[in-house]
Amino acid sequence: MKRARQLIVLCCIVLLLWGRAFSQTPDAKSLTRDGVELANQKNYAAAIDKYKAALTLDADYAPGNYQMAFTLHAMGKGLDGISYLQKVFTSKTASANLVNGSYDLAGSIYDANHQPQKAIESYKAGIAANPTYQPLQYNLALAYFRNKQYADAEATAVQAIKLDPKHASSIRLYALVSFHQNKRAQALLGFCSFIIMEPNTARSAEAYGNIQHILKGGALPAEPGVTISPAAKAQADAQNKVLTKALPTGFKYPTPGDALTAQLKGIFFALGNIPEADNKDWHGLAAYFSQLAASPHMPAFARFISMSNPESTKWAKANEQKMADLQAWIDGTDRTF
């Protein structure tokens, strides 16, 4: 009887140990998770080995294929990862977010390897699969911009903004592509809107520099090989006439901030009076800044967007309540595109 009990106990121990060993057998999911941890430590070679092991067990495991491509891209071997992303595109089990991210990653790989058209094709394929995934719209607009396809970049940036009105980089990109088409009025509104969302950064200082360039009547020089369509040129001419007419002339102001206040106030009122049919893509911005021009906050706003100017910084410190009132107005007023 004692011997029988010992055998039963021994069998239980063996079964328990076998169960533990079986439960610890790596699968594609756990191997991929281990690979991600190694990649986060920048141990890319070891991470690749883990992904290879995962895909040996399950060649169609979508997260494993994505992470393999992502890590190869981090190693500077992104093009080797495209075949892995192709498996994610055709996967029947991959989540929508993973598919979206895979198209985005493929576009980034092509972009990094100076293949702009393939990057554009990848982003467009991703958008066709999911038109509401904002990062793909933004990255497509950025790819168009880098490829100097400014009209396409503008239209796509508008879509990115509509999907995420609080995405500062999309607004900045919209302003830049507008400026490159000499559409200085909408560029001005875009730069002002961008600084509201991202003040006191290197990018906001650059945006203020572009605003100054616009106010001085400056246009970017023509770029070799870039053709602006007749329709875009007509839009630019119409905007620039309004801008030029709205700028005050013949006045001397005590400080640069006072001059900027007067300039922006006149422009914002003028742009706000343009019929919506003539500025359907930026009517919301024009209406917003027209409201601002009618408020008592313009002196504070002029300093807010020009903090890179020492006079503006000094004024803001001496008028903290006015700056706080401006911020309260910004926080409480809808700004739509």
What's the structural blueprint in terms of helices and strands?
Blueprint: H1 2-23, H2 28-40, H3 44-57, H4 62-74, H5 82-89, H6 96-112, H7 116-129, H8 134-146, H9 150-163, H10 168-180, H11 184-197, H12 202-215, H13 230-246, H14 256-272, H15 283-294, H16 298-304, H17 310-318, H18 320-332
Describe the structure in your own words.
Residues 1-23 have low confidence and may be disordered. This protein is mainly alpha-helical and 337 residues long. The chain is elongated, with a radius of gyration of 28 Å. The chain has a domain at 30-161: Serine Threonine Protein Phosphatase 5, Tetratricopeptide repeat, CATH 1.25.40.10. Helices cover 72% and strands 0% of the residues. It has helices at 2-23, 28-40, 44-57, 62-74, 82-89, 96-112, 116-129, 134-146, 150-163, 168-180, 184-197, 202-215, 230-246, 256-272, 283-294, 298-304, 310-318, 320-332. It has 18 helices and no strands.
Task: For the structure shown, list the relevant keywords.
Serine Threonine Protein Phosphatase 5, Tetratricopeptide repeat; 18 helices; elongated
**Assembly level:** single chain
Between the first and last Cα atoms, what is the distance in angstroms? 85 Å
On the 0-100 scale, what is the average pLDDT? 90
What proportion of the residues is helical, as a percent range?
over 70%
Structural class: mainly alpha
**How many whole angstroms does the radius of gyration measure?**
28 Å
Tell me the series of helices and strands, N- to C-terminal. HHHHHHHHHHHHHHHHHH
Query: What is the assigned CATH homologous superfamily of the domain at 30-161?
Result: Tetratricopeptide repeat domain
| Total strand segments | 0
CATH fold assignment of the domain at 30-161: Serine Threonine Protein Phosphatase 5, Tetratricopeptide repeat
Please give the CATH class of the domain at 30-161. Mainly Alpha
| Envelope shape | elongated
Low-confidence stretches: 1-23
User: Helix tally?
Assistant: 18
Biggest beta-sheet profile: none
